[in-house]
Amino acid sequence: MRATSPVIVGRDEEIGLLSSALDAVRRRSGRALFLLGEAGIGKSRLVGECAYRAYGLGMPVLRGRATSTGLVVPFRPLAEALASRFRAAGTPADPELAPYHPALARLVPEWRKDGSPGYPETVVELAEALLRLLSVLGREAGCAILLEDLHDCDTETVAVVEYVIDNLADLPILFLGTLRPEPGAALDLVRSVERRHAATVRELGPLHEDRVRALTGACLEARPEEIPESVHRRLAERAAGNPYLLEVLLADLLDTGRLQRTDDGWEAVEQPGGSVPSDIVRSWARRLERLDEPVRDLLLASATLGSQFSVTVLQTVTGFEDRALFTHLRSAVEAGVIAPDGAAPDRYTFRHSLTAEALISSLAPAERASLARRAAGAIEHAGQPLDEDGRQLVASLQLAAGNRAGAARQFAEAGRRMLASGAHGSAVVLLERAHPLAAESDRAAVAESLAVARAEGGDLDGALALADALPPVPARSEAAARRGLIHIELAWAAVMAERTADAALQVEAARVLLGPSPPPGRRAALVVVDGYLALLPGHGRRPRDPADSERAVREAAETAEAEGLPVVACQAWQLLALLRREEGFDAADAALERMLSISTEHALPVWRVEALVRLGANAFMRTGDAARLLSARAAATELGALLLTRTVDGLLAMNAVMCARWEEAQETIDRSAEASARVGDRSAHRYLLLAGATMAAHRGRRREMDRALAAFRRAGGEQSLLVPLRSGLCRAFGALLEEDRERAAAGLDEALAWEADHPSYYYLSGRYGLRPLLRVLAGDADRAELAEARAAPGGCLAWNRQFLELADAVLLGREGDPAGAARLMASFDARSAPFPVARHLGLRLVADAARADGWGEPVAWLRSAEEYFYGAGVQPVASACRAALRQAGASVGQHRGGWDRIPSPLRAGGVTPREYEVFVLLPERPGNQQIARRLSISPRTVEKHMASLLSKTGRADRAALCEFAAECAAEPA
Question: Which of 86, 167, 205, 909 is 20 to 30 Å from the Cα of 229, by its Cα?
Answer without folding.
Answer: 205
